[in-house]
Amino acid sequence: MYKLEFTLKQHTPLIHFQHDQAGATLRATEVKPKLDQFIIEKLLEEQNIRFDYYEPQTDGTQKFITAREAFGRCSDKPKTEDQKKWASCLAGKGKNEHVSLDYKITILSVDTCINVISEDDKVPMYFGNMGDEYAEKPMSLITCNKLKISIFCLNDILRSTIKKLFPYFIARSNFGTRQNKGYGSFFFHEEDENGFFTIDHYLKGNYCLKIRQNDWRNSLFVINYYYQRLKSGVNYYYKDRNTGKAFTHYHPSFFRDFMYLNQSVQWEKPWLKQKFFPVTGVLNNPKFARALLGLSPRFEFKNKPNPSNPNPATYPRFDFGVDVTSETILRHKSPITFKPIMTERGAEIYVLVERRFWEPICNQPFEFEGLGKTEDIYTPGNGIDTNLLIKEYNKNLGTSFTVFDFKGVKSINVSITIQS
């Protein structure tokens, strides 16, 4: 009576660093805080209560009001009948310093498979098996046949809320390392007895990339190409294995043009080239724009040989890296998450836009260091409308496009739909 049970199917591997520990799979310690956050935000939105903003303090400072802070305040001083019920849903009845909901989760995996990622493995969009960090903290790809989640909750109101919102939560969430790029994707198993709808019901209004291949590696291959073409652009040079003919597969960054058209901002790449490499050109309000789509601690610049222009005098070679640091911003996650789901007909990859408060990342200085030089550049002064970005990008791609690898060997046809 006080327990909710869900059976999940895993669609993409979970990248985990504690593979040698018992129960190395999806952890309750990761699921519980994320589910808490999801429920709290939904309840606040239903009551039109503001959160994720800076509040002026009497001493002249500013305090960032999170969703948990706003929820705790409403529970302490409720203004509606619904808010009066919130205090009973909190662990410690709202008296605990950390705001969390009063329920417990246990997770049991069935037929778990653990594959340690070696230094030679090529795992899509994962580079943790390179460099010194690998020896200290090797990671594993973890999969299981099915996952059983049990939620114990004595509060009738909270238990009912969890059951109502859990399918939306699991449809929009991935877990583990590189989760926003599609790793750690789960949804309901056919053996689940709750009678939930298929995932498209919970993701109406979101774009979906569909392919005929139904394996996770091809799905993440598509995600990598789609996101790279959006954020950085693609520029592949290769020769046909049969004819020896040289080909170029080039698409500039769509985000570069989007920022210039919408904010009159020039992305940071021309600035980087002028500061760290003898390249000339006109700089026009350059900003560290790509930071808005997720921070990278390093940029690599490797000029590959151009089959159409092999002369190094006119097409110079270079290969160097630039480290990126900030005194105030340590992490900024991409506002875009990909949710891959394997089906009998292929794979469906949902493109999900997360709610984002932009102020902390905007107009912030970042230090770029490389080749014995150090240069500073600021991020744009405003955030972006990520929904508009994805809409315009998909419009640019059309109803379908083809994904290529950098060797010209592999190609996958992708169709774009929007869930209605």
| Helix content class | 10-25%
Strands in their spatial order, largest beta sheet: 15-16-10-20-19
Report the C-alpha radius of gyration, rounded. 24 Å
Which structural category do the helix and sheet elements fall into?
alpha+beta
Furnish the topology, listing elements before pairings.
Blueprint (H helix, E strand, L loop, with lengths): L2 E8 L3 E3 L11 H19 L6 E4 L5 E4 L1 H10 L4 H4 L19 E7 L2 E4 L16 H4 L3 E4 L2 E7 L3 H17 L13 E3 L10 H4 L4 E5 L4 H16 L1 E7 L6 E7 L1 H10 L5 H8 L21 E5 L16 E7 L10 E8 L2 E8 L11 E6 L2 E6 L7 H12 L2 E5 L6 E8 L2
Antiparallel strand pairs: 1-8, 1-9, 2-7, 3-4, 5-8, 6-7, 10-16, 10-20, 11-12, 13-14, 14-17, 15-16, 17-18, 19-20
Helix pairs in contact: 1-2
Folded structure, characterized:
This protein is of the alpha+beta class. It has 10 helices and 20 strands. The strands form 6 sheets. It has a 5-stranded antiparallel beta sheet. Strands 5-8-1-9 form a 4-stranded antiparallel beta sheet, with helices on one face. Strand 11 and strand 12 form a beta hairpin. It is globular, with a radius of gyration of 24 Å. The model has no long low-confidence stretch (mean pLDDT 87).
Highlighted features:
420 residues; alpha+beta; five-stranded antiparallel beta sheet; four-stranded antiparallel beta sheet; 25% helix
